[in-house]
Fold these 4 entries.
Entry 1:
Amino acid sequence: MHPFAATLLALTLLTGAGLLWFGNRLERAALLAIVIYLVATPFAAIIQFDSWRSGLLILEVILFLVFWAAAEASNRWWLTAAAGFQLISVISFAMPLLLSDMLVLTGILMRLGAWCLVVIAMGFGVFETRLHRRMAVPAQA
C-alpha cells in the first residue's frame, strides 16, 4: 500500500472512531456506510466495462445518497459538505465516457481529492458533534 493511501486510511479510521464515539445516530449510520464502502471497494473494482468502473460508480452513488439523506435529516453541516464532495466523486466517473483514456488518471485523482475532502469534513464533524454536546449540557450554578 502506498504511504499516502495508508495515511488517508488511518485518518479515515481515526475520524471515524471520533464520530463513532461522539456522533449521533445519523452520523453513525453515515459512518457505517463509509465502512461498508471501504470494505466493498476492492470487490466492486472488479466490475467494469472497458475503462469505466461501473462497480465503483454504484458504490459512490450509494455513499452519496446516504450522505445526502443523513444531511437532510440532520442539522450537521459536515454531512452536507461530505455529500457535496461525494457528488464530485460521482461526477468524475463520467470522464472516461467523455474524454480519452489518457485523462482517466485525472478522474482517479479527482476521486482521491474528493475523498480527502470527505475525511477533512469528517474531522470537522467530530469537532462539531463535540461542540454540540457541550452546548446542549445545561450550565449548573
Note: Helices lie at 3-22, 25-44, 54-73, 77-91, 95-98, 104-136.
Entry 2:
Amino acid sequence: MIDLGPEQNAGWSPTPQNSGRVSDLLSRHDLICAAIVGCARATQPDRHLDALIALAVFPGLAELRRLGAGVWLRPDGSRVRALRYSSLPAAAKTLVPSGYWIESTCTGVIVVGAEGAWSGRHAIEAISICLAALRARDAICDCEDSTHAFFQENIHG
C-alpha cells in the first residue's frame, strides 16, 4: 500500500475537521430534504417521521440524548417531544413559515408567501401540509443563505 501525504490526498484526514455534531455534518438543507423524502414515502403517520421533521426544523435536537421516536432528553432532565406532524393537521400547520399562509386546493395544499408558493400532495392531509411547509422552509433557507453570502462578500469584503 502506498502512503499518501496530505498534499496528495485531496485534503482527506483520518481525524474529523469538525466537532462531530450532526449540525456540523449536515446542512439545514440536507435535514429538510430528508424530511421531505420521508414525507413523500410515508404510507401512514409515524413517530419516526415526526422526529425527522422535528430535527429538520429544530436541528439542535440532534445534540440532545434521544429517548425514543420523537422524544429527547434535555440536560436538565426535562423531555422534548416532537409534535404529531404526520397525523395532526394542526401540528403540521405549525411548520408553515411566519408570514406565509396555507391554501387548500382539490389536488392538495399550497403554502404561499413572499418568496413564492410550494405544494404538497399526499393521501394524508397532515403530510400534505408538512410537504408544502418543508418545501417553503427549504426555499427560504436557500434565500437566507444566498443573502448572507452576498452580504458577506459585498459588505464585509
Note: Residues 1-20, 145-157 have pLDDT under 50 and may be disordered.
Entry 3:
Amino acid sequence: MSLFALIDAFAALPLDATPPARAAAARAMLALPGAEAALVYALDQPSRRAAALQIACVHVRDAPGASWQLTALQWMRVAGATWQESASFCADVAWSARQEGRPASRPGPGALTAHAPAPPLTARTLRHLYLSGLRYEFRCADIQAVLPRDSSGLDPYTRALGVFAALGQSQSTGVEAMHRLLDAPAAAADVKTAHAVLHSLWLGERLPRQGELMLAVLRLPPLADREDPLALYREARAWRRLGDLDSALECVERAFGLLRHPHATH
C-alpha cells in the first residue's frame, strides 16, 4: 500500500475510532521510508490536508524531550497553517505533552520566544503552544503577563486564551472581552476557541451568572450538537449552578455514553 493510500485510510477511519487506534494508524504510516515527505505533499492536497495534520500531530507527540515544540513549529511552517489549524494542532499537542510530563510551559523554544519578535506565523505558533501550556496548568496570571493589554490585533484563539486568563480569575472585564471575541463569526465557529472560552467560564467560580454564560457558549455552533463528552461535563456544571440537578445528571449520563467512543477536544 502506498504512503498516500495510508493517508487516505487514516482519513477514512470511522468517527468512533479510539485515539489509540488513530495514533497506531498514524505511527504505521510514519514508520515507512519517505513518510514525512509524503505528508508535506499531502498538506497541499485539500482532500488529504486534515488527515496529514492529524498524522503530523502524532509525529510531534513522538518527538523526544523538548524537541516536540520545534517539531510542531516546523509542521506549522510547512503547512502554512491558518489560525484555526494552528489552534487545533497546538492545543492538542500541548495537552498531550502535559500528560507526558513535558508541558509547553517549561523553558524551551516556545517558552523562550513566545513574546519575542518573529515572523507572524512563527510568533502565532509559539503563542499557541506556550499559552495553551499555561492554560492547562491554570496559570492565568502568567498568560496575562505574556499578552499585550490590547490584544485586538491577535488571532481569535490567542484572544480566547486571554479571555480564559481573565475569566479564570473571575475578572468582570473578561465577560466584556468574551462578548467582543464571540461577536466575530470566525471566532464563534471555531471549536478550540469555543472550548477555551467554556473552560474559562467553568473555572470562574465567582462570576455572576456563571451558569447562564456557560449555557450561552454551549449554544455556539461547534458545541451545539452535544456530541463532545467534555462539553457535556461543562454543561452539567452549568445546570448544577442553576439548581437544575435533573438536567445536570442527564448531561453526565450522556457524557458517559459518549466516552465509549471518545473524541473530546480541549
Note: The CA atoms of residues 240 and 248 lie 6 Å apart.
Entry 4:
Amino acid sequence: MFNYEKIILNGLNLMPSEDFSTDIQGLFDSNNNNTTSDLYTDGRKVGNTKLDSKTITITVYKKRDNFKAMLQLNHIINQGEIDLEFKIDEDDNIYYCKVLKESIMYDDIGNAAITFIVCDPNIYLRDYKELSLEKRVEGGFLLPASFTIPDGFNFIETELGNVGEIINEGFQTIYPEIIIEGDGSNFEIMNKTTGETLYLDYSISTDDRIYIDCNPKSRKVRNNNASILKYKHGVYLSLIAGANDIEVNYDGEVIVTVRWREAYV
C-alpha cells in the first residue's frame, strides 16, 4: 500500500539498515480495530471508557547474519510501550505512534513477524508544533513622580500577547501539552473556539515549571515533578481540526507555551 523510506523502532533503525529490511502491515486499515485495556483518566482516578486501537504486524527480514543485532531487536520490543517512527517515500514528514508487543514468530531462516498493539487510535506527526503566549500591556502614559492624576482621568492601555491562534492541520481532535514558566499565579487558559477553560489556582516562581498534559490517556498537572492536580479546576483543553483561538490570563510575568502533535488515522 505504501513504500516505507524509514522505520525506527525505539531508536533502532530497521530501515534503512545494513542488517534488516522491514515492512508494516495493517497500520492504515480502517477496519483493523483492537480494544485495549487502558482507560481514560482525569489524572485522579481511572475512567470507564476503553480506547479502540489497531493490531499491526511488523515483518523484519534478515539481510545478513548479525546475532547481536537480533538480540538488540528482541531487547527493544520487550520494553513495554515503545516508539514507532516511520516515513513514507512520497511524504516529507516523519510520523509517530506508540506500540506494545503482543507476539513474535520466527521462520526457519530467522525472519521475524512481530505483532503489536498500537496504543492510541491515532498516528501523529513526530515533531511538536508550539505557540508561546506572553501577556504584555501597551499604551498609557509615562509621567513624572510629582504629577497629580486628576479625578476621572483614564489610562488607555491594551493587553497584547495573551491571545493566539492554533491551526490544527490534522484530521482529528487532539490534546495539547501546556508549559508555564516564570513568576505568576491564578492561571486561566482558554480555547475560545471549543469553550473549554482550564484554571490553575497556584503560584510559581522563576525556578518552577508547570507541565499540563491534556491527553485523556495520560492527564497530569505537575510543577517540576510534583503533582499539583488538586489546584486544577475546569476542564482539560482539546484542539479541534482547523482554527483554535487560545487565550491565557494570569497575574505576574510568565510565558505559556502550548504544544501539540497533529493526528491522523
Note: Residues 129-264 form a domain with the Jelly Rolls fold (CATH 2.60.120.860).
